[in-house]
User: What shape does this take?
Amino acid sequence: MRTKILLTGCLGQVGYELFQTLSPLADICGIDVQDVDLSDGLALERFLRHFEPIDLIVHPAAFTAVDLAEEQPDLARAVNTEASRLFAEAAAQRNIPMIYYSTDYVFDGNRSLDLCYAENDSTSPLSVYGLTKCNGETMVRKICQKHCILRLCWVYGLRGNNFFRTMLRLYQQGKTPNVVSDQIGSPTWSRMIAMTTAIIVSKIINIPHSEFPWGTYHVSAGGVASWHEFAAAIFVAMNQHTGQEIELPKPILSADYPVKAIRPKNSRLDNNLLAATFGLKLPDWQTQLAWCLEAIQNKPFR
Ligand SMILES: NC(=O)c1ccc[n+]([C@@H]2O[C@H](COP(=O)([O-])OP(=O)(O)OC[C@H]3O[C@@H](n4cnc5c(N)ncnc54)[C@H](OP(=O)(O)O)[C@@H]3O)[C@@H](O)[C@H]2O)c1
Assistant: This one.
């Protein structure tokens, strides 16, 4: 019997890649806001009560508008915490596993910039988004014993609103942005996250659940960059590709770029547990960027 996966947020950056990447492994039922609004707990409970059969829940859907979450904390809590609780309960009731995606924003980022955060480091979110995702983690951990929590960092991809696409748009308009240089992390292509998930899902399907290493794992690109370095790398690649000479982004401090939600200064995640447990190590962020640009342009970018 083929495995059946319920995939949330299937039109989002990660969800869309997951839909395609998981398809060879299982029958995927992808849902997004037009199928059931995750902020409506009663509607979600009704949906889950009647949703059968199902072998695994993969749950990337989230309220990801970090600044808007400061203004709409109830909505962020409903989607990121409460809906995740309901999915965890649905998984626990059926004795099936669940994959939940979380974020570097569960940490405060105050750690020295040469250090990374490990899975068991204490969380201390600075923003409503970070707090609601962190509480989502807690729900999943507490309610659904067979869980994988995958913490991601600085996700970008071919769809949706993300930093990478904003930089490409500015480049195409011939505009040189000011970009913060005092926040660091590891820009990670959504497709790499989906491919990593597929390998984990394949193990979930193929080994007894009692032997699977359930728990929390960090999944981010190798290497480290500031937002400014990431933006500059996009502009350099585009200049090489187009032959134009658009001026490179200029570095600024986050204090000079006021936004509603406070971001961690250090978003570096330690991926060693993923490597030790599953033998998985994502390529460095520069390689992922080149691949993503190739995927857009269908031309070599090196
Ligand atoms: N993006 C990042 O940099 C980043 C970093 C670390 C971790 N993460 C985590 O990784 C996961 C995937 O992120 P992503 O970048 O793929 O996010 P995304 O592109 O914003 O996708 C999230 C999906 O969830 C849907 N959604 C939002 N509110 C909903 C609701 N009330 N009911 C039903 N669906 C709803 C969205 O639909 P709409 O588009 O219609 O709202 C969208 O399709 C999330 O759990 C996020 O917290 C992301």
About this structure: Residues 73-94 form the longest helix (22 residues). Residues 9, 11-15, 32-33, 37-39, 60-64, 79, 101, 103-104, 133, 152-155, 160 surround NAP (CB under 6 Å).
